[in-house]
Design brief:
GO terms for molecular function: transferase activity. InterPro entries: Glyco_trans_2-like, Glycosyltransferase_2, Nucleotide-diphossugar_trans. Belongs to the glycosyltransferase 2 family. Pfam families: Glycos_transf_2 (PF00535). It is built from eight helices and nine strands. It is of the alpha/beta class. The chain has a single domain, classed as Spore Coat Polysaccharide Biosynthesis Protein SpsA, Chain A, CATH 3.90.550.10. A four-stranded mixed β-sheet has the order 4-7-5-8. Strands 1-2-3 form a three-stranded parallel β-sheet, sandwiched between helices. Helix 5 packs parallel to helix 8.
């Protein structure tokens, strides 16, 4: 699942590398650079959803709701996340985990993109999240995530911006999901400029994790239960 906004040049690198997936869902924020056309030219089978740009979180929620495969991977469109790492995420899902998050600080992980300021902010936010939620995460603000489709409803996501990455993590804890981290190497954005604002989005992440910590139990949706087959009608002979 890929949210996009004017990422045509990056998709020319990314889309040919998505060969071993059953479904590609792209949620586009009304791009003006031919993003949708590029995606369809390379992968005509991609499912494209175009909606007004309301933020990364809003796009991700739309894409997760539209996905039909049992296992879902969230991927940034800028080429910083390598599809060659899919197997590492999927292996942990197949071992029974519900929610697998990438970490740039694990053994084998790294980042060519994090500035010193962003790395410091991420480490501080991660430490606070671990304190608030009793976890041992090494990387909170990284959107390379895989999960089971049946976990999407249980996350009860509401965020519209970059803070959705934090909301996914903390709500996975609140929902009692089985969580794992896997090392990932982030490269620099290949083309264009990021929409991330260090201070604005860091503040939104902080508010999200604190608010949810004291929001009370996460209300879980009712499980989908198929209606029972009706009993056969009895005849007088029976």
């Amino acid at each position: 699942m890929i949210p996009t906004l004017n990422e045509a040049d990056n998709l020319r690198w990314l889309m040919p590398r998505l060969t071993a997936v059953d479904e590609i869902v792209i949620v586009d924020g009304q791009s003006t650079d031919g993003t949708v056309e590029v995606a369809l030219a390379i992968r005509p089978d991609a499912k494209i959803i175009v909606e007004p740009p309301a933020g990364k979180g809003a796009a991700m929620r739309t894409g997760m709701a539209a996905a039909t495969c049992d296992l879902i991977i969230m991927l940034d469109a800028d080429g910083s996340m390598d599809p060659a790492e899919f197997d590492s995420f999927l292996a942990l899902l197949c071992r029974g985990f519900d929610f697998v998050k990438g970490t740039r600080y694990g053994c084998g992980g790294g980042s060519d993109d994090l500035t010193g300021l962003r790395s410091l902010g991420n480490r501080m936010l991660t430490r606070l999240a671990n304190l608030l939620y009793g976890q041992h995460w090494s990387d909170l603000c990284y959107g390379y995530v895989a999960m089971r489709r049946d976990a999407v409803r249980r996350l009860c996501l509401r965020s519209t911006g970059f803070e959705i990455e934090t909301e996914m993590c903390v709500n996975a804890v609140r929902a009692g999901l089985r969580i794992a981290e896997v090392p990932s190497h982030e490269t620099e954005r290949r083309y264009g400029q990021s929409n991330l604002n260090t201070f604005r989005d860091g503040w939104r992440v902080l508010k999200t994790m604190v608010r949810l910590r004291f929001a009370g139990p996460l209300e879980q949706p009712e499980p989908d239960v198929a209606p029972a087959d009706p009993l056969p009608a009895l005849t007088s002979a029976e």
